[in-house]
Design a protein that fits this description.
alpha/beta, eight-stranded mixed β-sheet, six-stranded antiparallel β-sheet, 8 helices, globular
Length: 370
């Protein structure tokens, strides 16, 4: 029996990813990664019973990543393709598109709060409900998280989270919020973990006027009843990728409804630069909205807009452009970067301080005006 090769192998100059295949069952193997384009590259070479793919030591470049997620794309004799994790690497991260192997470079350190003990009262509780959206002849699932020591009748500030159940599962959002509330870093608050409309995420999160209207006229009133907030308080909204785009678009269309925004790795497609995305069904609608924001024509009465993006993301430049456009329109924009890619682990690692600072400042400001 052939022993599984250790993978990846790091030298001073490169990273070698190794996939054993002594019987040469695969016709071709490529490495799927997000550090260079195309994503399915480089093509591996086969010799001595194994496939090898090589990348330069990208972590040593300025603003290089501190970790990366990857998978092998194997082509079977019948031409079918399959994504598989690296059998030589036991570190795996779950994600919306399946599990990927993880390479943590020597400079990577996970957040300390992941190892913190539970607060005295525990991590709070989540109450689930279904919110009917007649426009879509469907309902969205929403879980309202409340910290320990508070009940559903208490009036608390609210954070609305796109892809909320998935965000909580993969980024441990309510775990962090519970710790932050218990430590006094943020005032007691709630989080509404809002799932996408079933089977229509790409449509509804793509600068859709219908979805923005449903969010403002259906979802928020439902939450006012199930998660009461102080009078005249507007919920903050957080999202990642298309969820960030949808949050910004909803705040633009319904400026009196939403408060602070936390936008992680927003999918801000632009006509002039994102030719690779033109096959996306709602590309033109997104690019029109992004154009208005990028040129400083989107005025939103929100207190703070936090934008954070990975240094190796395809979205990196577009997020900077959007931050500049919003700042030109007079908004308080906080632009930060993280040395990672477009993953839930990267967004988890950015939550402290990106999200916590916005919640602490916004909620303190609101309390001072009451």
């Amino acid at each position: 029996m052939t022993a599984t090769a250790v993978s990846p192998v790091l030298t001073d100059a490169e990273i070698t990813f190794v996939l054993p295949d002594p019987d040469r069952r695969y016709q071709e193997v490529t490495l799927y990664q997000e550090l260079q384009r195309p994503r399915e590259s480089p093509v591996a070479t086969w010799a001595d019973g194994e496939w090898r793919a090589r990348l330069p030591r990208v972590d040593q470049a300025p603003k290089g990543p501190k970790r990366m997620e990857y998978a092998f794309v194997v082509t079977h004799p019948d031409g079918g393709k399959e994504f598989i994790t690296d059998p030589g690497n036991p570190v795996v991260a779950d994600g919306p598109f399946g599990a990927k192997s993880v390479l943590q470079f020597p400079t990577y350190q996970p957040p300390a709060w992941l190892q913190a003990e539970a607060p005295a009262g525990g991590f709070g509780h989540i109450e689930w409900s279904e919110i009917p959206l007649s426009r879509y002849r469907s309902a969205v699932t929403c879980g309202v998280w409340t910290p320990a020591g508070h009940n559903r009748d208490d009036e608390l500030p609210l954070l609305l989270v796109h892809d909320g159940p998935e965000f909580d599962e993969l980024s441990r959002l309510t775990h962090l919020l519970a710790l932050a509330v218990a430590e006094g870093r943020i005032p007691p608050m709630r989080a509404a973990l809002l799932a996408p409309v079933p089977n229509r995420r790409n449509e509804t999160y793509s600068a859709s006027a219908h979805y923005a209207d449903a969010l403002a006229t259906r979802v928020v009133p439902h939450l006012d009843h199930h998660a009461p907030s102080p009078a005249d308080d507007r919920p903050a909204v957080m999202g990642a990728s298309l969820g960030a785009l949808a949050a910004l678009h909803a705040a633009h269309r319904h400026p009196a409804t939403f408060g602070d925004l936390v936008l992680l790795s927003g999918s801000y497609f632009r006509m002039r630069s994102d030719h690779q995305e033109r096959g996306f069904a709602h590309f033109n609608r997104i690019s029109r909205f992004v154009g208005r924001v990028a040129t400083g024509r989107a005025t939103l009465p929100v207190r703070t807009i936090a934008i954070s993006v990975g240094t190796v993301e395809e979205n990196y430049v577009n997020n900077q452009i959007m931050a500049s456009g919003l700042e030109a329109a007079g908004h308080d924009v906080r632009l930060t970067t993280f040395a990672d890619g477009h993953t839930y682990t990267a967004w988890r690692d950015a939550l402290d301080p990106v999200l916590l600072d916005v919640l602490a400042d916004g909620m303190s400001a609101r309390r001072s005006t009451l």
